[in-house]
Structures are given as C-alpha cells and as structure tokens.
Amino acid sequence: MKKIGFIGFGNMASAIALGIIDAKFLNANEIIAYDIDENKAEKMRSYHIDVAHDIDELIACSEFIFVGVKPQVVESVLDPYIQKLENKAIISIALGYDFDRYQTFLDDSTRHIFVMPNTPVRVLQGMSLIEEKHSLKDQEFEFVKNMFSAIGQVEVVSSHLMSTAGTLSGCGPAFVYMIIEALADGAVKEGVPREMAYTLASQTLMGAAKMQLETHLHPGVLKDQVCSPGGSTICGVEALEDGKLRATLISAISAAVHYQEKK
C-alpha cells in the first residue's frame, strides 16, 4: 500500500511530491502517480516514483488520493471512480473545489480536504492554506498538516477566506518574480552583470521577507529603518510612490481574486 497516489502530475503536484521527498517526509517508494501525459510519467520514473497503469490501480493501492488535475476536469476524471473512492481520503489542490463543492458529488463516506499550496514548496519554502472545513479523521488531518509543514509554512483558513488568501500566496510568487526581474534590470542598467543582479535581487527579497517573519515588525517600520534622512533609499521610495507600486500590487491581487470569482 502506497501512502499517497497522485492523480495528475503537473507543475504543482510534482513540486509537492518532489518537495516531500527532498524533505524526507516520505520516500519515493511510498508514492505512486498517474498522468495521461507520458512525458510526465517519465519524469516520475526519473525520481523513482512508481507509475500506475490507470486510476483504478492508483486508488486501490493508495491510502490518500491526491487530486492534482486542472479544475475544469476534476468531475469528469473522478466521476467514473465515485464508488471506488468510498471510504478513501482525498487531498485536493484543484482551485474552486472546496469542501462544499466536493460534497455535491462524492459519496458521503469519502473523506476530503482542500489545500492551496504554492510553487515554492519545491524548495521547501511553500505557503500552503488548508481549508478549516474538512471530513478527514483526526490522524489524517495531522498527516496532511505535517506533510505541508515539511515543505513550508501552513495556515488553516476559514472557507470564506480561502479564495482571497490563496490568491495572495498562490499568485504572489509570479508577482514577486516580476519584482525580482525589475530590480535586477535596474541594476543591469547601471552596469551590474545580469547573473549578479538576479542573485542580489533574489537574496535581498528573501532576506527582507525573513526579517519581517521573524521580527513581526510592521513592514512600514522595517522600511523606515532603511531610509536615512535625505539618503538614497528614500529617493528610491519616492520613485516607487510616483510609479504607484503599492496601488498596482493591490490592484493585482484584486484583479486575480475577481477573475476567480467569475470562473
């Protein structure tokens, strides 16, 4: 019996699987996966993860069933296996498939939980939101919480906040990568070599983020600590304010949230 069977092995599911292996939370031989894409199957084999011949086999030999397919195909993928999923435990990362939505088509005996992770789980620095409302047994819930804690930070979140909070942590890495790229471009413009600029920008963001997490100081206070009167930093802050950086980032979160509401 495998501990987890992954249905779908796309970017997010594979990041989680490889993250928990790297974190030594599970061994590769405790995981099995299935994907219709043979290239993804080859990727699984390269990491010594067993590949199921079909979903029937995966369900039969897995303690937890991990749903990692695209939201638009969740029900068409699972519908043929509703009976086989009876008395099984499901971990789902499919956006929009929260507890209440799964209740509409799964058997009452099928236990399930909705988790919204982000891609930095691959380097054990993820931010994963676990829906507070679920039907797992206590020991199953602890397993899920411990698994995602092994690959980053975890927050247990009320159902009504999952969409907005998940937008921040899920879409946020893309926004941060754009900030890293822009900061590096600015340094390159002034003569810094490209690879050095990426290192400086990435490490600076990582260090600043860690400082806020560990000190719990308001970001504005930490910003003020860097800004000497009449110095270069406050001049840069003025340029960011002129460019409406904060307003633009706020708008980015709102745009992503409202897009999801339309789906």
CATH class of the largest domain, anyone? Alpha Beta
Compute the gyration radius: what is it? 21 Å
Low-confidence stretches: none
Note the overall shape. elongated
Helix content: 40-55%
Assign the structural class, choosing from mainly alpha, mainly beta, alpha/beta, alpha+beta, or little secondary structure.
Answer: alpha/beta
Major β-sheet strand ordering: 3-2-1-4-5-6-7-8
Q: Average pLDDT value?
A: 96
Q: Please, how many helices?
A: 11
Roughly what fraction of the amino acids lie in strands?
15-25%
CATH superfamily of the largest domain: NAD(P)-binding Rossmann-like Domain
Give the termini distance in whole angstroms.
37 Å
The CATH topology of the largest domain is given as Rossmann fold
Tell me how many strands there are.
Answer: 8
